[in-house]
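User: tokens in, sequence out, please.
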């Protein structure tokens, strides 16, 4: 709460505007995931969601702060070019159907371009969006039982706090599991709770027709986000390369257009290593984005472009703070950053 108030106070006196002048870099890339009409339903990871009102508000506040919305393809030349006006790019990860059905009409009406990074296995049904499966189970049951390899885990899920804890702990276990073990656990989970996991998962994702329609729409771009959303750095190199290359190929075949942009699944420091970055470059992408960091600067690595996450309870005050570059300054002065970020 103290942090939130500090940001609100700083924005109220336009401190972020002053900081942005010096620390705001060339522009920003926002990282978004899912979109919903309202925030009434319990979500396992609220940070993955924004409402349409939030989306409209962030576009409004960024325009007010002087940002120009451009497609990601136009961002690279702006890093070193003469254009001084700051740019903003919107990116949506994973390829959710709500992006197409809810966000795109709003973005069209506001003239804002966007890039949608697609995890291709989630769209073709070869891979299950396990985070959605967990959410469905936790919304309907007061306990979550997970069989993962030889271990049986039992999480109580009666109160909202317990549901959140169960979601968090199960997510961590599944993310850390080897792909084959994770797949077996999901199959068992679906069977135990009587769920048609593939259909449930696919219903949340873009359809093939939506992907084709996006590829043909000049306002929106498709980017690749692997086939199965793994932690790439944890895979053997050949498997990581296949994840990267096959997602590109799948999207290009379906959409009939080159796919030049990539987002690393999870996108944190552990998931994005120099070796993984080199693989993305070798596969023919021109940009790749990570899941943290502040503004994009002239020195940003095209294969590790920082993004600013936004979702859940985040407000326009949080956005103004994050886009100002203040966090990078605070990081340099250690103790302050611990208190204020
Ligand atoms: Zn993702």
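Assistant: Sequence out:
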């Amino acid at each position: 709460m103290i942090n939130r108030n500090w940001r609100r106070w700083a924005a109220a006196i336009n401190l972020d505007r002053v900081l942005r002048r010096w620390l705001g870099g060339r522009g920003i890339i926002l990282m978004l995931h899912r979109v919903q009409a309202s925030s009434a339903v319990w979500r396992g990871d609220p940070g993955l969601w924004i409402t349409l009102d939030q989306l409209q508000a962030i576009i409004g506040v960024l325009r007010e702060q002087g940002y120009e919305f451009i497609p990601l393809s136009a961002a690279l030349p702006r890093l070193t070019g003469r254009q001084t006006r700051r740019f903003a790019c919107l990116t949506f990860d994973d390829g959710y159907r709500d992006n197409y059905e809810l966000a795109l009409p709003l973005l069209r009406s506001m003239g804002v371009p966007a890039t949608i990074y697609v995890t291709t296995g989630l769209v073709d049904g070869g891979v299950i969006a396990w985070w959605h499966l967990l959410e469905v189970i936790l919304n309907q049951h007061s306990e979550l039982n997970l069989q993962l390899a030889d271990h049986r885990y039992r999480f109580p899920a009666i109160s909202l706090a317990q549901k959140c804890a169960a979601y968090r702990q199960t997510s961590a276990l599944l993310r850390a599991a080897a792909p084959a073990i994770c797949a077996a656990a999901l199959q068992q989970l679906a069977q135990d709770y009587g769920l048609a996991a593939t259909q449930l998962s696919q219903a949340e994702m873009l359809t093939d027709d939506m992907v084709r329609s996006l590829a043909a729409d000049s306002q929106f771009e498709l980017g690749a986000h692997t086939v199965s959303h793994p932690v790439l750095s944890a895979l053997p190199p050949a498997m990581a390369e296949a994840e990267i290359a096959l997602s590109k190929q799948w999207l290009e075949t379906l959409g009939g257009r080159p796919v030049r942009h990539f987002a690393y699944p999870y996108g944190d420091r552990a998931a994005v290593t120099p070796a993984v970055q080199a693989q993305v470059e070798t596969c023919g992408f021109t940009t790749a984005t990570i899941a943290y960091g502040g503004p994009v600067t002239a020195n940003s690595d095209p294969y590790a472009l920082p993004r600013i996450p936004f979702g859940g309870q985040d407000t326009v005050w949080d956005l103004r703070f994050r886009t100002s570059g203040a966090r990078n300054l605070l990081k340099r002065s250690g103790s302050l950053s611990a208190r204020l970020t």
